[in-house]
Q: What sequence folds into this?
């Protein structure tokens, strides 16, 4: 896993956005898997600005949402699909049918998962990921199999607690559906993003500790083309 460390959060945002524009310019048909959450918000804003100023286009690209919570109202602002729309998809020139997300309200979740994996196909070109305080990647909680497919997951207590960051109510989700580790680790390129002091300890464990399914992010160290982007605070213990 390569490591790119930036002096400030602003430089981190600019650095990720610059490389992302580069990837889209090189391959306009880039197929991406993207996270919601707080980590990528400023990066998404930078990409939206880039589209607005004609520096880059998502016209021929494709975006897959990394995961979503179950049991929330479809218009809940904390649902991952709505966060992705609000922070990125609504502000870029991606054609409607090229944004894929997971319908966690469907009666037959198993077929939703199989269809999502079918749409994902062989692999993503580029996957962006945040990291949970327990080292999870999307909804791949500690202990997830590296072979896992898109599936329903019961969330760990810390993940349930963290969902409160995105919600305006106390009805926290306890489960969700997330893209499995197999398609994520099979992505041609993976970028793990972390900013802020509260991520420093889990980044240290993911980078310097044992490579173990107990810290899913540590598995990225075996990926042939993965990169960790940290700001000074998140990278302070490296
Ligand atoms: P965050 O969430 O970006 O809101 O910190 C990351 C995660 O839990 O995967």
A:
């Amino acid at each position: 896993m390569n490591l790119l460390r930036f002096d400030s959060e602003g430089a981190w945002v600019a650095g990720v956005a610059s490389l992302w524009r580069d990837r889209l310019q090189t391959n306009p048909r880039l197929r991406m898997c993207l996270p919601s959450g707080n980590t990528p918000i400023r990066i998404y804003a930078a990409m939206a600005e880039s589209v607005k100023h004609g520096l880059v286009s998502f016209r021929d690209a494709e975006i897959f949402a990394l995961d979503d919570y179950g049991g929330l109202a479809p218009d809940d602002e904390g649902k991952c699909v709505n966060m992705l729309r609000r922070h990125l998809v609504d502000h870029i020139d991606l054609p409607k049918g090229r944004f894929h997300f997971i319908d966690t309200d469907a009666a037959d979740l198993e077929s939703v998962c199989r269809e999502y994996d079918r749409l994902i196909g062989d692999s993503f070109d580029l996957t962006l990921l945040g990291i949970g305080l327990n080292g999870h990647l999307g909804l791949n909680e500690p202990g997830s199999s590296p072979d896992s497919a898109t599936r329903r997951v019961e969330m760990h207590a810390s993940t349930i607690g963290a969902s409160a960051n995105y919600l305006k109510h106390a009805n926290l989700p306890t489960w969700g559906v997330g893209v499995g580790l197999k398609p994520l680790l099979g992505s041609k390129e993976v970028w793990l993003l972390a900013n802020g002091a509260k991520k420093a300890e889990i980044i240290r464990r993911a980078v310097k500790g044992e490579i173990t399914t107990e810290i899913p992010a540590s598995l990225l160290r075996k990926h042939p083309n993965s990169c960790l982007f940290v700001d000074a605070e998140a990278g302070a213990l490296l």
About this structure: The longest helix spans residues 9-26. The beta strands are 2-6, 31-34, 62-65, 67-69, 99-100, 126-129, 151-154, 175-178, 189-194, 226-231. The mean pLDDT is 98. The CA atoms of residues 210 and 218 lie 7 Å apart.
